[in-house]
Write a structure and sequence with these properties.
It contains no helices and eleven strands. It is an all-beta fold.
């Protein structure tokens, strides 16, 4: 069983920055997939970025060059640095942990970007 808690969401103007953090606890491993998803109002949840420690990172085309995902295995956290934010980045951001074909999700943190 894995528990995920997100933090760092808030209100920011277009062009600004936010840093999201996800703290994982429970029966976690270091080299599974962790990532961030987001869901805009009235839209479906979409992948923003994912990471496998020591292997690779994946970014949605819409955030490449603006967002950076990083994992700290010692602290058991995964962060998402979001720069040059746009209004279309607005949504609830969810932390995801995937291992052995099972997905675990945090409750989400709201990011609102004003124009």
């Amino acid at each position: 069983q894995v528990q995920l808690v997100e933090s760092g969401g808030g209100l920011v103007q277009a062009g600004g920055s936010l840093r999201l953090s996800c703290a994982a606890s429970g029966r976690t491993r270091s080299f599974n997939v962790m990532g961030w998803y987001r869901q805009a109002p009235g839209k479906q949840r979409e992948l923003v970025a994912s990471i496998i420690s020591g292997i690779s990172t994946i970014y949605a085309d819409s955030v490449k060059g603006r967002f950076t995902i990083a994992r700290d295995n010692a602290a058991n956290t995964v962060d998402l640095q979001m720069d040059s934010l746009k209004p279309e980045d607005t949504g609830v951001y969810y932390c995801n942990y995937r291992d052995y074909g099972v997905d675990y999700w945090g409750k989400g943190t709201l990011v609102t970007v004003s124009s």
